[in-house]
Amino acid sequence: AAVPTGGLALLLGVLLWRALHGAPLTELSGDQDFQLFLQRNLEFTRKIRGDVAALQRVVCDTLQLCKEDELLLVRQDLDIAQASLEQCHRRTFQAETCFSQIRAGLRIYHGSLATIQALLPGHSGLVETLQMDMANLSSNIQQQMEDLGLATVTYPTENQDPLPTFSSHFHQQVGGFFILANFQRFLETAYRALRHLTSL
């Protein structure tokens, strides 16, 4: 279920404006609209994380790829993209750059999920739902940044990045495992960044 863009954009606008302009957020802590924004946004991110976790369980059950430490040697041979979120960590937090990095990362993983779809054709519905939620979240953030007059990058509707190539089916399977593991870590950082905004 997508978060309604209009309400989210308006509420995120108030939050981001205050975060970017240094206004105290304490007066918002008891505000009903603010709490509603937090609940919706964090629940939406949690839903995406849950879908990724479900795909991770399928990879474990069907491909017997469950433990990351057992696959690290194979990982070195794979060219798996990792999205950077260094501007979303608490010490270096910058709202505008963090949200840009979240959008860029969502785009990378949106494309990479084609590998998962090829590996798990029986679960393509879950992959497509996940991709739709990711696109909606990215769109919400872009809309909000535009409303605030922040610099945004408009990505093409169709992902233009080349998909990772694998030398064997096993490498493709391990690649799929790490795509999901990296995406889950990305989402956890993005989630913490959203939580961090609430404490500014």
From TrEMBL:
Entry's family note: Belongs to the IL-6 superfamily.
One record GO biological process: positive regulation of myeloid cell differentiation
Pfam family, one: GCSF
Record InterPro entries: 4_helix_cytokine-like_core, GCSF/MGF, IL-6/GCSF/MGF, IL6/GCSF/MGF_CS
Chief location category: secreted
Key words, A-Z: Disulfide bond, Glycoprotein, Growth factor, Secreted, Signal
UniProt GO MF annotations: cytokine activity; granulocyte colony-stimulating factor receptor binding; growth factor activity
Name of encoding gene: Mgf
Signal peptide: 1-22
Top-level lineage group: Eukaryota
One GO cellular component term noted in the UniProt record for this chain: extracellular region
Name of the protein: MGF factor
Lineage: Eukaryota, Metazoa, Chordata, Craniata, Vertebrata
Location of the protein in the cell: Secreted
